[in-house]
């Protein structure tokens, strides 16, 4: 065998061994960290849930009991998690991941917790790109506006009043920013509509199931 060919084969072998060693190292690192990463994600999700779901409302693991819902017409995104809270073995609340797709600067993501009677337990914004100093008053840390949904339900206020005041509704808008609160109010109302229409199916599904709903709510006439 020519020296040049021998050197080429040896270099190829060393490269292959190095690749195998790197792959083994990556696989080992992933195996060691995947449980830690999964636990960190779960803790972050629990902390978010605890903001909208009072601790005395459940005694199960709402995340483990959750389902995936594909209902873009209702919840504003292709796929959403719905966490299911139980108390004493009975369904107590649903916590929905929803999106207001029509925010001023882009989609607004939120969590909406709804009790068995269809009343809002809490709403929090989880992500948005609204204008600082104007639209970001939807954040609980900046104003009390988001708390105005607590204990509200379909019919309280009347359906035609599930709008901002500028549109003849119940909920205040912000000075210089109407599109942002308008989008959030509509997203919360659609979440309540979803629970009213499909809550029983969501509650009855097996944990981890994926449910598909191709219908959509009938929104009130647009503001004039």
TrEMBL record:
Its EC number is 7.-.-.-. It is a single-pass membrane protein. Signal peptide: none annotated. It is found in: Cell inner membrane. InterPro entries: FMN-bd, Ion_transpt_RnfG/RsxG. The keyword Cell inner membrane applies. Its cofactor is FMN. Residues 103-195 form the FMN-binding domain. GO terms for molecular function: electron transfer activity; FMN binding. Keywords: Cell inner membrane, Cell membrane, Electron transport, Flavoprotein, FMN, Membrane, Phosphoprotein, Translocase, Transmembrane, Transmembrane helix, Transport. GO terms for biological process: electron transport chain. The modification FMN phosphoryl threonine is found at residue 178. GO terms for cellular component: plasma membrane. The complex is composed of six subunits: RnfA, RnfB, RnfC, RnfD, RnfE and RnfG. Belongs to the RnfG family. Part of a membrane-bound complex that couples electron transfer with translocation of ions across the membrane. This is Ion-translocating oxidoreductase complex subunit G. The lineage of its organism: Bacteria, Pseudomonadati, Pseudomonadota, Gammaproteobacteria, Lysobacterales.
